[in-house]
Amino acid sequence: MSADALISTYFATGTLPDLPRDPYIGGAFVPPAKGAYMESFDPGTASAFGTFAAGTAEDVDHAVTSAVAGFALWRDTAPAKRCAILMDCARLLRAEADHLAVVESLDSGKTLAEAYGDINSSARLFEYYAGATDKLDGRSVNLGNDNAAFTSREPVGVTAHIVPWNYPTSTLVRGIAPALAAGCSAVVKPAETTPYTALMIAELLIRAGVPAGVVNVVTGTGVEAGAPLVTDPRVRHVTFTGSVATGVGVMQAVAPNVTGLTLELGGKSPLVAFADADPEAVAEGAYWAIFSNAGQICSAGSRLVIHRAIHAEVMERLLAKTRALRFGHGLRGPDMGAINSERHLATIAGHVDRARARGVEVLTGGAIAQDPETGKGWFYQPTILDNLSPQDDAVLKEIFGPVLAVQIFDSEEESLALANGTEFALAAGIYTRDLSRALRMARRVDAGQVTVNDYWAGGIELPFGGNRKSGFGREKGLEGLDAYTRTKAITLAV
Ligand code: NAD
Question: Could you tell me the distance, in angstroms and rounded to a whole number, from the CA of residue 246 to the centre of ligand 1?
Fold first, then answer.
């Protein structure tokens, strides 16, 4: 079915045909052991449109057992063959892009264009890591003539992937693509509000030639399905993407098994704009940095740290753009989609309401809203909070919505102190025409990735990850393979 046909079907019936609902284990959809299901909601209408399994420890046990068997097969599959299969995964993902993008937009609330972007970058991830499959070489080491010594990079084994709801497809694939390239197997636990694309992709991978059992998906809540997965002693690496609080809990939970861990957590990333920066480029950059995906991005530019000399001009341009922004149901092609859940919408509103109550200036937005066409759904107005102090909660706390916090500075030293002034350190953007200053700032700002004069520059080829409470470990790029391989040293006395 084309995207248009799927969208018409959805608006006519309130659901989509052929949505998967059972855990995907050992190459088949298997009803959950306890037989319980949960409802899935369209954030653009606030109505339920499907059900999916509320998986439990029994399903997780089944999935990990299947992944242990899958690992034995996949590890011994020749790298060149794994490469060909992963290329086929990319091809199938592109072939199914219409279906996947419509489901993703509906399930998450993001715009259809954003959903296509995620599917496309996920296909690129499979292609990129397919190319690495047959290049995971070791090195030979000279111990003298009596010994032949070399290293080999080996897959770690069964890996677990705990995925959040803001980028259900691309966050999943940036974990499983390198894991599969390295020869690992995987069990995935998608977020409880966005279960479908993980199930669809697992089925698609097996269709592409990945052996049954190598990729398994158990849907359900974090407590019922996520916790038993990360603590299963057969799991050798956990890749967790989500909030700081849950990430800290997962870190504690995996400690007794000494399981490897990648933590991709929250952020409060600054876009630092100097007096010599192009005001239009800053306004445009800040607009997309905070309003893409309705601000529900770990690396969103949620703070605009701006020199006093250009503050007024940039704010005028940014306000004009923000007031012209059209939000609405993701499938109707708006500039900005919905907030993923009613609970998260209330969290965003709480942050802004408290800011207003303590006297923060709300330049625009600042309220819950509905789809202008239907009067339904979970939306938040694009919001700008101006001239905040470094200690304000709206500066220090991750809001994870379309809410920009503006901070004003007078000197480069002050800008750096403001940029590094939260417990997060995920991303940063620097806007200046002075290359020396750009490089000086890029070196001194605490973040996993720094962009200059283009906030979202980058791609799957560059490593991504945080410092401090934004987590540790790197995904994407060749560094993304490190978590899924172990180096073994081998000597042969001759
Ligand atoms: P969350 O921590 O509530 O949930 C994330 C996942 O963890 C979900 O699948 C959930 O079911 C699961 N989970 C919950 N309790 C668990 C437990 N005890 N054991 C195992 N799994 C458990 O986060 P969220 O609200 O879904 O996502 C938003 C957060 O994710 C934000 O803080 C955002 O910054 C962060 N995030 C970070 C990145 C990154 O790459 N750094 C990317 C996307 C999102």
Answer: 6
